[in-house]
Amino acid sequence: MTIPALTLNDGHTIPQLGFGVFKVDPAETERIVSEALAAGYRHIDTAAIYGNEEGVGRAIAASGIPREELFVTTKLWFEDQAGDKPLAAIDTSLDKLGLDRVDLYLSHWPAPKNGHFVNAWERMIEIRDAGKATSIGVSNHLPEHLEKVIAATGVTPAVDQIELHPAYQQRDVTSFAAGRGILIEAWGPLGQGKYPLFEEEPVAAAAAAHGKTPAQVVLRWHLQQGHIVFPKSSTPERIRENLDVFGFALTDDEQAAITALERGGRVSAHPDEVN
Ligand code: NAD
C-alpha cells in the first residue's frame, strides 16, 4: 500500500493520510501510535495542547523507522503566540518529541481577540528559517486571518487545518485557500462521531456498493476532494481500517451525493470564540 503524497506550496511533500492523536490519553499514546506506525501510517498529527507529544516521540524512537520516512506535525497553542513565546514553544515541543525538527508546525487557532496571530506567524517564519520546522502552516484560520498573515509577511501558509466533513465543508475557506495554493487539512474528518454521518443514505449506499465501511467511504470522499486527513482511533481494527482506503474509488455520482450532505453545521468551536 502506498499513501499518496501531495506537494505543498513550498515544494515539500506531505502524505495525504495520517494519524491524529487529539484526545489520545498521554499514558496510552506510545502504544497507540506504535500500532499506527506498525499498520503503515507515516504521518502523525499532534499538538502541544494535546499533552501527548512525549508519547508520540517515544513511539517514533521505538519504531526504528528512518526519520526521513516520517512526517510529524505539531502545533503552537494560542497562549504562546505573543512576543518570543513561539520560539520557546517549538523548543519545548521538539524536546518532548525527541526530534530536532518537525515536518510541519501549525499556528493552532488565530484567537483574533488576543491580537497576536500575525506575530505568531512572523515567529513561525523564523522557526522555519532556523530549520526547526521544514514547513509551516496554520489551523482554524478564516480567510480574513489568512489575508492578514500573508499581507504582513508575504509568506503563504502551506496548509490550513480546519474542521471539515461532509456536513460542514467551509467552502469560503477552501476556495480562498485553493486560490493561493494552500492545501486543506480536514480535522474531524469523520465528524468526531457528533452527527449521524455513517447513517446518511449516500454514505451507506456507497459503503454497500464497494463492500467498505461508512468510515472508509467518508475518508475516501476526503481524499478525492484533495484534502489531507488524519483520522483518530484508539482501536487497532479501526486504525487499520482507516488506512485501507486506497484500493477503491467513489464514482463521480457517489462523490457528488456525499458533497450534497453539506448542512453548514460546525461540531466544534468558531475560531473567533476560541481564546
Ligand atoms: P475524527 O473525525 O477523526 O473522529 C474520531 C472519532 O471517530 C474517534 O474517536 C472514533 O470514535 C471514531 N472513529 C474513528 N475511526 C472510526 C471507524 N473506522 N469507524 C467508526 N468510528 C470511527 O475526529 P478528530 O480526532 O477530532 O480529528 C482527527 C484529527 O484532527 C485529530 O486527532 C487531531 O489530530 C486533528 N484535530 C485538529 C484540531 C484543530 O483544531 N486543529 C481539532 C480537532 C482535531
Core attributes:
single chain, 275 residues, alpha/beta, TIM Barrel, eight-stranded parallel sheet, 10 helices, 15% strand, binds nicotinamide-adenine-dinucleotide, AKR, Aldo/keto reductase, oxidoreductase activity, acting on the CH-OH group of donors, NAD or NADP as acceptor
Instruction: Determine the CATH superfamily of the domain at 5-193.
Output: NADP-dependent oxidoreductase domain
Give the terminus-to-terminus CA distance.
Answer: 41 Å
Please provide the ordered H/E string of secondary-structure elements: EEEHEHEHEHEHEHEHHEHH
Shape descriptor reads globular
| CATH structural architecture of the domain at 5-193 | Alpha-Beta Barrel
Approximate helicity band: 25-40%
Approximate strand percentage: 15-25%
Active site: 50 (proton donor)
Keywords: NADP, Oxidoreductase
Protein name: Aldo/keto reductase
GO molecular function, one term: oxidoreductase activity, acting on the CH-OH group of donors, NAD or NADP as acceptor
